[in-house]
Amino acid sequence: MSKLPTYSGRLQPPTAVKRPPSDNGMDEAAVSPEKKSRTAGGRAIQPSKPSAGRGGLKRSFSVANVSAVGGQKDHSKNSLASSKFRSSTLSLTGRPSSVSSSVLANRVPTGKSKRPGWDLKGRLQDMEALLKSREVEQKEWMKKFEEYDTRIVTLESEKTHLSHDLVQTTTSYEANQEEIESLRKNLRKEQDERNSEKNNYENTIQSLTFSNSNLDRQIKSLDAEIAARQEEVAGLKFTVSELSSTQAGMEARLKSTESLLLERNQQNAEMAAQIEEQKRKIEELNEKLQQGEMMRRKLHNTVLELKGNIRVFCRVRPLLNEEIKNNGNSDVVHHINFIDEHTLEVGKGEVNTSSMSGLKSRGNNFTEFSYDRVFQPSATQSEVFEEISQLAQSALDGYNVCIFAYGQTGSGKTFTMEGVPNDDELEGMIPRTVKHIFKNMEELESKGWSYKVEASFLEIYNETIRDLLASPKEAKNLTYELKFQDNKKNEIYVTNLKRIPVENEGKVHTLLNMAQQQRAVAATNMNEQSSRSHSVFQLRLSGENAKTGDSCEGMLNLVDLAGSERLKESKSEGARLVETQNINKSLANLGNVIMAIGQKQSHIPYRNSKLTHLLQSSLGGNSKALMFVNISPVEACLNETQNSLRFATRVNQCHIGVASKQIKK
């Protein structure tokens, strides 16, 4: 950074020049403009060259003298003016600091007394003397002024040089300041970079210090681990030496074991061959067993057909959640005992459980019932259908088949026959039978058989037939009556009943869903969703064999009877009362028909109800019939259970004759 020059030796502070005293009483206001330019209130100014010249100054003083002569009254005024003049200063740079007033004072007459007013001559002489003195003084002042002018010119020149130097100095100073500012910025930038590097280095040092400490700890840990490993290695070496000796013994044993293993492998191969042979024999036996079971069922069906009786299957539904709670959170049915697949006992009595044997002891009031098949509450829909599949197959063979479900309300009849829609495991007998029939129809196609299938679905509600496949608008003006089919072989048909051709299983399911939506269902005191009508689903199957020329025609009737109710227990009123009366009446007529058939009466009262009239061909004609008797597991329904079982026993004893195959002509 450059050092600026100073000019303290060349510039001098301005000095004050005393003005001469004025005898004429003039104050500073009467000073000429030239003098005013040189002084401004006693402040130091830059002197300038007088503009009026020396002549002007002389005239100024002459006027002052004349004024003093004409107007002076006393000497004290002149003294006062002189003191004022002396007290005023002229600030000029480089001029003498003061002008001695003693010279001027010596030239002015002093000590004379004031002349009287009439002494004009004396006064004129005084004025002339004063004028001479003033002229001398003026000359001295002019000389001084010339010196001052010379000095001013010198100072002006010096000022010009100084101004030029000042400009150069200022320019240099500004350049130096810019350079200084740039250097400062660079310095700050450099300092910031150095600080950043310093911080980075410090962070690196801290990180390295931390890493170093971690490494130290790891080294110590590894040293300890190495020491432990060395001890372990020493132990392992000892163990290896022991194992080496042991290995020698084991190798000897291994050789003997390998020879033994070869023998065992040979034996295993022989055993495996024997096992495969046994498996093959077991599979053959299983196939024979299945064939034997199928043969047994066929023979059993043949025996039943030859006997000509109505087959009866008894099914007990499981307890519902609410019923389990009321049964002490137990699903055990105490009043029903399952003896085997064909027999059960029903009765009311105390049931005691022995803590030693777990066996139940019962009273003596249990009644035993035997049927063609008894299904416990754990039986599935698939297991139930397996028992009736051969019967359903008969419809394809040209037989009339009737399967109906009987029992009190809430005993599971509708579940058995229809099941739960869109659930393969819970499908009922009707959808499973349809699936079975269409599956067998496809298998029979390879043998030359082709079938036409027509479906109808009706219900008997309050002794009135309703078509469940017809819309209310279609059935509005139609009447449905039961008539014989051309008066031959007691075949009954319903007039105006809608029969819809079906080509596949899906079409049948669509019709079943349509019928379920139109069926009469209502809540009663005995059942929240009780069927209030008898429903009859019919499939008419017409088959022809193109290879052999054979033909057949079968009818499959799947009937879901309305549940019986005791008016005393159901407490039905209004429409429910009428429904209950008609249901009980039709079921009673069904019992009378079964009784008449069993007793070989000459007159069978089929026409006493629409239900028995519709089932006339199934009960007393050329048909294979099967009845499900559905039982409630609730002990409070014991009386209805016993009545249903007694009715089922009478039905099972009813002989309707041997069914014959219907040959289509």
From TrEMBL:
Keywords: ATP-binding, Coiled coil, Cytoplasm, Cytoskeleton, Microtubule, Motor protein, Nucleotide-binding. The keyword ATP-binding applies. GO terms for cellular component: microtubule. SUPFAM superfamilies: P-loop containing nucleoside triphosphate hydrolases. It comes from the Eukaryota. Residues 1-119 are annotated as: Disordered. GO terms for biological process: microtubule-based movement; mitotic spindle assembly. Belongs to the TRAFAC class myosin-kinesin ATPase superfamily. Kinesin family. KIN-14 subfamily. This is Kinesin-like protein. It comes from Macrobrachium nipponense (Oriental river shrimp).
